[in-house]
């Protein structure tokens, strides 16, 4: 956690963590959002604490009445009042707790909703840099931790804090010298708590880590039992496990030591003020400066303090943990977010890449001053060895990343400045990763165009050849994914392509869309792709050279630079690097790959012919390769 006023912290590419000041400001906003319930909570708690205060004071009056020789009738009345106060306190506390839990529930719902909204607004690049694990951990453990504390712990702590504050005020009002003495003697509690809290987080963290390490070592040994036996590693694994177990024991002993210091110190600190007040009170009574009843009431008040203080102490660790979790949850507010709706409107469909340098994280540039134009409606193939920067350039073209230097614009506007809604009307990436949401077919498609009618959805599905939808029991309303109809890779890809049809971008960046599919699925997908690509500009990131052969132009990327650009025929005739690639592929056997390329190029075209695909094999000629 940062201290006050510090900016949010980030570690490497990780998502930011909110500063202490930001956490406080967020907490105040949350309270304001449900101000009435919070005010009601305070009033009820105050009333409950007030009722609780009356009992010791009345008991003091009983003592004074008895000392003064008052009758039993007066004592009975006081006793009845004490019982009434106890009942009122119980009822008010119960109701305050109910209101508190409801407030906590509503507030945690707000936190969850805001987290989801912010997470969805994160640019893909920010999530990728941070690692999806970080975001997932914030969503699955930090948000529930904050919610749990808000619902179950915070109301109890608020009640206890108010009770403790009221008791302290009452003691001081009743007898300032005795109150001051009691509070001084009570100082041991905050001192012991401070000592403990300074050491506890690191100690418990270490205990958690060694526990995970022990679990991991045991699980790894169990999983690799055969290997352990085959290689005679038993002794070595046992020694490794013992070493981790010893470390775990050491960290547990450390936390045990902390607790064994805290609890006795706190217990003594609770008793000390009572003893001191009784001793000093006796002297003051003899002196006549205070009544015996006031001394008894003071002692009872101080004794009463142990309950709320204990309640707070026991929950301090959870509160600290929740505060850290809240800082991580709120950290998303400081993370970069996708551009808000509205903003600049592109003037035209031309995509221009100029002087682009880009790299990942703090690493070196992987693109070095790339300059390229994608003309409306053209088919441009990006080829080059593995690691040349093709996918990186593709990500910049679809606005997934913003270049370190230079610009990538569509119609004169940087693509990274377009809000997601507008961006997908211009340029869309089609890759091998397709996600089907656990929702209806309709909702899976409306993501691309929320105002689309059922007729438009069916037309888009028809365009990509998703005939299977017609046979679904509930048609567009059929639920897909977890808890619904299982969807295979080809159907998922058709849904993704139908979304592209609905978004209707003028440019599609195609990243090896069929490379991982089996031949039958790939053939289906190619037909669907051909329908989707018709009439749009296509930038095909090509591992297979027949894609380049059929394109209008080919850009050769090598080590982050465009080394050649032109038509296939012109580049082959030029005899440069592309011609060499082409000869290697064209003359290679079925296992040959592009030099240094990750995937081997197929020798058979989608139509089954050897050699590059004929442009007639797929409309528009941009033909993703098949996995033979
Ligand atoms: N997320 C990332 N983090 C760090 N470096 C990356 C990341 N993605 C790519 N790179 C690096 O950037 C360089 C270009 O990679 P890129 O994936 O763009 O090349 P490519 O031409 O598409 O390669 P391939 O054909 O193998 O997909 C490579 O050196 C790669 O290691």
UniProtKB/TrEMBL annotation:
Residue ranges annotated for the ABC transporter domain, each copy included: 351-584
One Pfam family in the UniProt entry: ABC_membrane
Chief location: membrane
InterPro entries linked to this entry: AAA+_ATPase, ABC1_TM_dom, ABC1_TM_sf, ABC_transporter-like_ATP-bd, P-loop_NTPase, Type_1_exporter
Keyword terms: ATP-binding, Cell inner membrane, Cell membrane, Membrane, Nucleotide-binding, Transmembrane, Transmembrane helix, Transport
One Gene Ontology molecular-function label: ABC-type oligopeptide transporter activity
Topological type in the membrane: Multi-pass membrane protein
Domain ABC transmembrane type-1 positions: 41-321
SUPFAM superfamilies registered for this protein in UniProt: ABC transporter transmembrane region, P-loop containing nucleoside triphosphate hydrolases
Location(s), subcellular: Cell membrane
GO CC annotations on file: plasma membrane
Protein name as it appears in the record: ABC transporter ATP-binding protein
């Amino acid at each position: 956690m940062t201290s006050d006023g510090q900016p949010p912290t980030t570690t490497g590419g990780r998502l930011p963590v909110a500063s202490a000041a930001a956490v406080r400001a967020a907490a105040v906003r949350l309270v304001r959002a449900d101000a009435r319930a919070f005010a009601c909570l305070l009033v009820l708690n105050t009333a409950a604490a007030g009722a609780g205060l009356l009992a010791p004071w009345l008991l003091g009056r009983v003592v004074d009445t008895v000392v003064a020789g008052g009758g039993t009738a007066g004592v009975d009345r006081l006793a009845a009042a004490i019982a009434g106060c106890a009942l009122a306190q119980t009822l008010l506390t119960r109701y305050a707790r109910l209101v508190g839990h409801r407030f906590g529930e509503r507030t945690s719902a707000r936190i969850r909703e805001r987290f989801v909204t912010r997470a969805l607004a994160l640019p893909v690049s920010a999530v990728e840099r941070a690692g999806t694990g970080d975001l997932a951990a914030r969503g699955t453990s930090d948000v529930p931790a904050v919610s749990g504390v808000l619902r179950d712990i915070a109301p109890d702590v608020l009640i206890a804090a108010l009770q403790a504050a009221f008791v302290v005020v009452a003691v001081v009002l009743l007898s300032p010298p005795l109150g001051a003495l009691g509070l001084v003697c009570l100082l041991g509690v905050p001192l012991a708590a401070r000592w403990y809290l300074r050491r506890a987080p690191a100690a418990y963290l270490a205990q958690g880590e060694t526990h995970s390490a022990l679990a991991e070592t045991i699980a790894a040994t169990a999983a690799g039992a055969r290997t352990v036996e085959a290689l005679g590693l038993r002794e070595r694994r046992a020694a490794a496990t013992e070493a981790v177990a010893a470390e775990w024991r050491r960290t547990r002993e450390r936390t045990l030591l902390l607790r064994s210091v805290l609890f006795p110190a706190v217990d003594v600190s609770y008793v000390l003020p009572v003893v001191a007040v009784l001793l000093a009170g006796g002297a003051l009574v003899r002196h006549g400066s205070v009544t015996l009843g006031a001394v008894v009431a003071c002692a009872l008040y101080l004794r009463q303090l142990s309950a709320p203080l204990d309640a707070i102490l026991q929950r301090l660790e959870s509160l600290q943990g929740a505060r850290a979790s809240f800082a991580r949850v709120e950290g998303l507010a400081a993370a970069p977010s996708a551009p808000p709706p509205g903003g600049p409107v592109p003037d035209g469909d031309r995509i221009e890449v100029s002087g682009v340098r880009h790299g990942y994280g703090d690493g070196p540039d992987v693109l070095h001053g790339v300059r390229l134009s994608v003309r409306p409606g053209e088919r441009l193939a990006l080829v080059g060895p593995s690691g040349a920067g093709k996918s990186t350039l593709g990500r910049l073209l679809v606005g997934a990343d913003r270049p370190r230097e230079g610009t990538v614009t569509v119609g004169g506007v940087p693509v990274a400045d377009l809000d997601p809604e507008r961006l997908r009307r211009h340029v869309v990436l089609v890759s091998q990763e397709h996600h089907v949401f656990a929702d209806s077919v309709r909702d899976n498609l409306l993501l691309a165009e929320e105002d689309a009618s059922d007729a438009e959805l069916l037309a888009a599905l028809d365009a990509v050849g998703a005939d299977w939808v017609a046979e679904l029991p509930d048609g567009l309303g059929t639920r897909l994914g977890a808890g619904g109809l299982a969807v295979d890779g080809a159907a998922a890809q058709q849904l993704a392509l139908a979304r592209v049809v609905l978004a209707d971008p003028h440019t599609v960046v195609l990243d090896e869309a069929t490379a991982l599919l089996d031949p039958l699925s790939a053939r289906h997908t190619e037909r669907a792709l051909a329908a989707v690509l018709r009439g749009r500009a296509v930038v095909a990131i090509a591992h297979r050279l027949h894609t380049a052969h059929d394109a209008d132009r080919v850009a050769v990327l090598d080590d982050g630079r465009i080394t050649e650009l032109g038509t296939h025929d012109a580049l082959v005739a030029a005899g440069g690097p592309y011609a060499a690639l082409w000869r290697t592929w064209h003359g290679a056997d079925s296992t040959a790959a592009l030099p240094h390329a990750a995937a081997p190029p197929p020798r058979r075209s989608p139509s089954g012919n050897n050699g590059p695909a004929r442009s007639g094999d797929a409309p528009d000629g941009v033909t993703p390769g098949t996995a033979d």
